[in-house]
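Q: Could you fold this chain for me?
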Amino acid sequence: MPRKPAKPKVSSAELKRLRERAEQTRSKVAHKPTPTELLSAKELADGAPFYFELRACIAELKKAREAAGLTLAEVSEKTGLAVETLCRLETGAITNPTWKTLGLFASAVGRKLVLVAEE
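A: Sure. Below is the predicted structure, expressed as structure tokens.
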């Protein structure tokens, strides 16, 4: 049986340096930037507002799912949507879902979607 190569040893000084670097990185990313910090004024004025409204709506649907004690698998059974689709919807990987998808999800978690045109 072939031997596994030995793991390289890391000195305590190097390990300390790496841990400090990791802590610095964690502190840099601890602050979750807001959309206004990430986007220019033009980007915010263009398509971004709709996207953020959509993300807020999906976040509410996710909260409703969790409050109902439903797993993604259970919502999948109720809607016929794949668990992967629901997961991608909740995480924002699907950036332009259909009304049908949103409606199925909302209905499965006991919510109703309402589209309003405001001034």
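A (continued): The helical segments are 12-29, 35-38, 41-45, 48-67, 72-79, 83-91, 99-108.
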